[in-house]
């Protein structure tokens, strides 16, 4: 497994030979994890919300669209959203909608339980 923090689509194409469709020309993913054996890529975005508000709703919508955009790749590209925080207690609907569209949504407790490790197997 290889990884790159703040990975861009050009970096991924040049180093791992995987085409990543992006919604913004300067899109940087928090982390990209690449399995050479499986020729599989996981693009990870992370955030934590201490309070509620419109930002949570906007990010949930943005990442839902981004996930759908990324999965159009002809390569094996997967989107992972790691999010947590008290803010989600007041924003159930946007999070529930995101769960309906994003295959891999994890919180910090799920990471402690090994969900990400299992995903990379």
TrEMBL record:
GO molecular function: DNA binding; type II site-specific deoxyribonuclease activity
Residue ranges of domain Restriction endonuclease type II DpnII-like in the record: 3-117
Organism of provenance: Streptococcus suis
Superkingdom in the source lineage: Bacteria
Protein name as catalogued: Restriction endonuclease type II DpnII-like domain-containing protein
GO BP annotations, alphabetical order: DNA restriction-modification system
Pfam families: DpnII (PF04556)
InterPro entries to which the protein is assigned, alphabetical: Restrct_endonuc_II_DpnII-like
């Amino acid at each position: 497994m290889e990884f790159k923090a703040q990975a861009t689509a050009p970096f991924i194409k040049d180093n791992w030979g995987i085409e990543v469709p992006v919604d913004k020309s300067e899109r940087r993913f928090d982390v990209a994890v690449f399995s050479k054996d499986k020729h599989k890529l996981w693009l990870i975005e992370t955030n934590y919300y201490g309070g509620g508000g419109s930002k949570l709703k906007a990010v949930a919508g943005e990442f839902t669209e981004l996930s759908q955009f990324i999965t159009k790749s002809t390569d094996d590209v997967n989107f992972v959203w790691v999010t947590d925080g008290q803010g989600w207690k007041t924003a159930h609907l946007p999070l529930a909608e995101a769960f309906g569209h994003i295959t891999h949504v994890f919180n910090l407790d799920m990471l402690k339980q090994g969900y990400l490790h299992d995903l990379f197997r």
